[in-house]
Amino acid sequence: METESGPQTSNQMQTDSLSPSPNPVSPVPLNNPTSAPRYGTVIPNRIFVGGIDFKTNESDLRKFFSQYGSVKEVKIVNDRAGVSKGF
């Protein structure tokens, strides 16, 4: 492959194939955060954490992630019996 700057090495080609899509705009509108999220919806500043031990509580998670920045909300999903689903 050759670009305006000349031939590319195999490392450059590998890096190019890992670059983000040329369209940085989200395919999902992010301007209505009050509506319920659909599966796969991008919500800014929200992370999913899985594999949480069933003994971990929301306070433990808040304390852990607070060392990396402010935590707005923590929610551990429970089943009908109240047992943590681990995410």
UniProtKB/TrEMBL annotation:
Query: What keyword terms does UniProt attach to this protein?
Result: RNA-binding
Record bears the keyword RNA-binding: yes
Do the record's keywords include Lyase?
no
Q: Where is the composition biased (Polar residues)?
A: 1-16
User: InterPro entries, alphabetically?
Assistant: Nucleotide-bd_a/b_plait_sf, RBD_domain_sf, RRM_dom
* Biological process according to GO: 3'-UTR-mediated mRNA stabilization; positive regulation of translational initiation
Q: Which GO terms describe its cellular component?
A: cytoplasm
According to the UniProt entry, its GO molecular function terms are: mRNA 3'-UTR binding; translation activator activity
Region feature Disordered, mapped onto this chain: 1-40
Q: Which residues form the RRM domain?
A: 45-87
SUPFAM superfamilies reported in the protein's UniProt record: RNA-binding domain, RBD
List the PANTHER family: BOULE-RELATED, PROTEIN BOULE-LIKE
Q: What's the name of the protein?
A: BOLL isoform 3
Species annotation: Pongo abelii (Sumatran orangutan)
The taxonomy runs:
Eukaryota, Metazoa, Chordata, Craniata, Vertebrata
